[in-house]
Every structure is written in structure tokens, then in C-alpha cells.
């Protein structure tokens, strides 16, 4: 029935809305019925999603028509012309009416007309834009994406006032009908990439996506059990705008404050807005320190375990790195217990109210660590090196990459404990091969390292000044490769 055209009789439409939308049963579904210019007019809306003030203003204008306009055969056109709103769209199918009403818009059904007028009076509940907790900067904008797709696209368009900026909206989920906007700059983004993203979204067949962006990611990139993120998330509007200008495609999912950036390589996850809020020299220094932290988070514990088992690998000047004491618990088991213990603390901090999380962290760091050493559970060096690796984990800009590195760090620990030097070499090589074989929407994951692109790699390793960055990243295949055309 919902595939049929809008009936000319509003009472028939009323019965359909009761059957398909729960009108009269669900307390938040609303309808107002009027007689305007001799025609029955029904107004359908959802309380909580529609702006009541906007509806009242529109209804006030329509009800005044009864005394000012003469009745005629063109009542539908007259009513449409008096809907003083910037977004009025006629629809013909009942399904479209139901979907739009459930999305927070208002539907106007007029007797004698086989079309319904959809008026955008949405007013979604949500918070105001604020700085994301996971992407803080010392200097820079303090606004960030929120759970409202309209607000998110507006924050982006405010930064890119280009008429070629496109936000193509679609709906995913047979029941949830979640709004998803595909953002790109026409003439910059690769049309083939845009078409691939559209095709993948159209192929999604599921009843709903309550987990929003993560569900979309799993459908688009077919990640499976790969722990490394294949797409990049951001909650900062300035980062989203930068990637649009580079030629990336962004996915805005309603009810999610995170925007998906496509495609993304491993080194995209290593960037942070703070690097571009400082001078190029300071930004480069911060980037190098961050790279060191990421490397320590992955290789420090396996390497220390290796040299602890094979002390002859170290020169005498570095024998102090330990362990200088022995316990009855194998060293590799100590490292696993301490590493998983930090993960316990991280999970507990997430579920602990903010005023208590700091106190809990201090108690865990001071009391638990010291007591574990005193009772002989750990040697002191285990606490030291696990803490350094943990700091490197938290210094990783991407939360997803930090967790993936932790999983592979445990894999390296296990293989080093079993095979020592060959285990460390083979394990490290397997990790590099694994990352090199990964592709994100047909994009090499380790680009520009593998395949090696000298110019692009220099920009990854050194934060160049913006006036000197004339070319967009070639990996996204931009239609316009120049962001700063050369002067002739």
C-alpha cells in the first residue's frame, strides 16, 4: 500500500497513516485537520523532531486564507504558494510521505491533490558544537561535529564556501532510514571514488544502523577481523574541511559526531591538528616525537624482552636496563599481566565518572604498581617499560591504531618468548607485510612508504609550510592536482 500514490481523499490518507505510522497509538505522532478554501487539509508531524514554533507560524498563515482568498479549483496551488518556508517539496508516493514525516518533516495533504507537500521543520534534539575530547588542540577552533547531520554539514560549508561542494544525501536501513550525506568537492574529488562510495551505500541491506558510522565502515571496506582502521574518523570540522580540499570523500551519518574520511592510509592516522597550529619547525618536532611514541608502543616491550633473554645482544654500557632482580613469575607473563592491567585501567576510566577517574588513576599507578613490586609479582623494570609503552599508546593520535598496535605488541611478545631473535625478526617482518598488503578502497595502506613516493614521504616526515604545499596528495587521484596554481 505504501508504494501507491498519495490519495486525493485525506481521510483515506489518515487511515493509511494510522496503519503504517501508528497514528493515534504512538503518543509522539501528531495530526491537525483543517478546512481551508473549502478543502480538507491534514497536517502530519512528529513531536520532538519537528519545530513546534515553525509549525504554528505556517498553520497561522494557512488558516487566515479562509477569510482572504476566494474558493477555487486551484486551492492546492494557493495553499502551496502561501507556505512561507524555504523548503517545500511535493512528493507523490505514500512511502515518501511516511519516511519524511518520521524524519521530522511536516506533511501537508490537501483534498483533491494527489501530491503531499513536505515542509522541512526539523529540530533535532542534541548538544551544541564543542571541542572533541579526543582531538584537543592548544590553539584552534573549539567547535566540533555533533549528532545532527544538518549542523555537521553547515559547519563544513562554513569553512568551504565553494559552490562545487556537494552533500548528496541518501538513506540506509529499511527500518531506521538513517540519513547519510556524501560530501566531496566536484572537480577535485575523484569521480570514480565517489561512485564507488555511492554504490557501496546503495548495496547495504539491513534493517537499521543504530551504531551508525562503524556499521557503515564495516559494510563499505569489508574490514572483517582486521584490527587496523581502514577509514579515518574525525570530530573536528577543520580536519574534515582540509581533507575535502585534498580530494577525499567524507561520509556524514546522522546521530554520529564522527565523520568518515575516505580513503585513509596508515599515515593519515598519524596526523594531528596540533601540528598545523604551530610553526613548521615545531610541527615537525611534535610529529617526530609522536612517531617515536608509536614505535615505542609497538616494539619497546618485545625488544626489552628479547635483550632480557639474550643479554649478550647489548653492549656492557647498557646492561643497566635489566632486569636486575628475578621473581618466580616468567618475565613474559609479567609483561602480559602488566599490559592487560593497563587495559583494565583504561576500560575502568571510561566507565568511571570524570571526577573520580583521576583519583582512580593515581591509586592504580601508585599503590597497585608499588605493591605489585613489593610482593614480588613484578620486577621494577616491567612497570617502567610497560608504562613507557602505555604512554606511547596514548600518544598515538588514532584511538583505533593504538588498540591495533597493542594487539600486535602482544603477538610480538609471544613470538619473542618462544623463538627469541628469530621470533622478533620474523614477527616484525610479518607485521610490515600484513600492513603492506592492506588496501583501503584500492589505496595502499602504507603509502607513501610502500609503494615509495619520495615527495609525498617527505611531507609525511616533515611538516611543510602551507605556501610550499602546491600539490594535493596523489593517492586520492584528484581531478585538480593543484591547490595553489603556479603563477605565470
UniProtKB/TrEMBL annotation:
Record carries keyword Ligase: no
Main location group: membrane
Membrane-related topology note: Multi-pass membrane protein
TM spans (from-to): 288-307, 356-375, 382-399, 411-436
Subcellular locations according to the entry: Cell membrane; Membrane
Keyword Transmembrane helix: yes
Keywords: Membrane, Transmembrane, Transmembrane helix
Pfam families given in the database record: GerA (PF03323)
PANTHER family attached to this UniProt entry: SPORE GERMINATION PROTEIN, STAGE V SPORULATION PROTEIN AF
Family, similarity comment: Belongs to the GerABKA family.
Name assigned to this protein: Stage V sporulation protein AF (SpoVAF)
Species annotation: Bacillus badius
Amino acid at each position: 500500500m505504501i508504494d501507491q500514490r498519495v490519495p486525493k481523499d485525506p481521510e483515506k490518507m489518515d487511515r493509511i497513516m494510522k496503519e503504517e505510522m501508528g497514528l493515534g497509538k504512538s503518543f509522539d505522532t501528531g495530526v491537525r485537520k483543517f478546512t481551508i478554501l473549502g478543502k480538507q487539509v491534514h497536517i502530519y508531524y512528529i513531536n520532538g523532531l519537528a519545530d513546534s514554533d515553525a509549525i504554528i507560524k505556517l498553520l497561522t498563515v494557512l488558516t487566515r486564507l479562509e477569510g482572504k482568498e476566494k474558493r477555487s479549483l486551484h486551492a492546492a496551488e494557493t495553499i502551496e504558494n502561501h507556505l512561507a518556508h524555504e523548503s517545500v517539496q511535493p512528493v507523490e508516493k505514500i512511502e515518501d510521505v511516511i519516511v519524511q514525516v518520521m524524519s521530522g518533516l511536516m506533511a501537508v495533504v490537501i483534498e483533491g491533490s494527489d501530491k503531499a507537500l513536505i515542509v522541512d521543520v526539523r529540530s533535532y534534539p542534541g548538544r551544541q558544537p564543542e571541542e572533541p575530547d579526543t582531538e584537543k588542540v592548544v590553539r584552534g577552533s573549539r567547535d566540533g561535529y555533533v549528532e545532527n547531520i544538518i549542523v555537521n554539514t553547515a559547519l563544513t560549508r562554513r569553512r568551504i564556501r565553494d559552490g562545487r561542494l556537494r552533500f548528496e544525501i541518501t538513506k540506509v536501513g529499511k527500518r531506521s532510514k538513517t540519513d547519510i550525506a556524501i560530501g566531496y568537492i566536484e572537480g577535485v574529488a575523484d569521480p570514480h571514488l565517489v561512485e564507488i562510495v555511492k554504490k557501496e551505500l546503495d548495496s547495504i541491506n539491513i534493517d537499521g544502523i543504530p551504531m551508525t558510522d562503524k556499521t557503515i565502515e564495516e559494510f563499505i571496506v569489508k574490514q572483517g577481523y582486521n584490527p587496523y582502521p581502514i577509514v579515518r574518523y574525525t570530530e573536528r570540522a577543520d580536519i574534515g574541511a582540509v581533507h575535502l580540499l585534498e580530494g577525499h570523500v567524507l561520509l556524514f551519518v546522522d546521530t554520529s559526531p564522527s565523520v568518515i574520511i575516505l580513503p585513509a592510509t596508515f599515515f593519515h592516522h598519524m596526523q594531528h591538528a596540533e601540528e598545523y597550529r604551530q610553526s613548521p619547525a615545531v610541527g615537525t618536532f611534535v610529529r617526530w616525537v609522536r612517531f617515536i611514541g608509536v614505535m615505542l608502543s609497538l616494539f619497546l616491550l618485545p625488544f626489552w624482552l628479547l635483550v632480557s633473554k639474550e643479554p649478550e645482544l647489548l653492549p656492557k654500557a647498557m646492561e643497566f636496563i635489566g632486569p636486575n632482580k628475578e621473581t618466580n613469575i616468567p618475565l613474559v607473563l609479567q609483561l602480559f599481566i602488566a599490559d592487560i592491567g593497563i587495559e583494565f585501567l583504561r576500560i575502568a576510566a571510561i566507565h568511571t565518572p570524570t571526577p573520580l577517574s583521576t583519583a582512580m588513576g593515581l591509586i592504580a599507578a601508585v599503590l597497585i604498581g608499588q605493591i605489585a613490586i613489593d610482593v614480588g609479582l613484578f620486577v621494577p623494570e616491567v612497570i617502567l617499560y610497560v608504562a613507557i609503552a602505555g604512554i606511547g599508546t596514548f600518544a598515538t593520535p588514532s584511538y583505533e591504531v593504538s588498540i591495533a598496535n597493542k594487539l600486535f605488541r602482544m603477538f610480538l611478545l609471544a613470538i619473542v618468548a618462544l623463538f627469541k631473535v628469530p621470533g622478533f625478526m620474523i614477527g616484525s617482518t610479518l607485521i610490515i607485510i600484513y600492513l603492506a598488503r592492506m588496501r583501503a578502497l584500492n589505496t595502499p595502506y602504507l603509502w607513501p612508504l610502500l609503494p615509495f613516493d619520495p615527495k609525498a614521504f617527505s611531507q609525511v616526515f616533515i611538516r611543510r609550510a602551507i605556501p610550499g604545499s602546491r600539490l594535493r596528495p596523489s593517492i586520492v587521484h584528484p581531478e585538480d592536482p593543484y591547490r595553489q596554481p603556479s603563477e605565470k
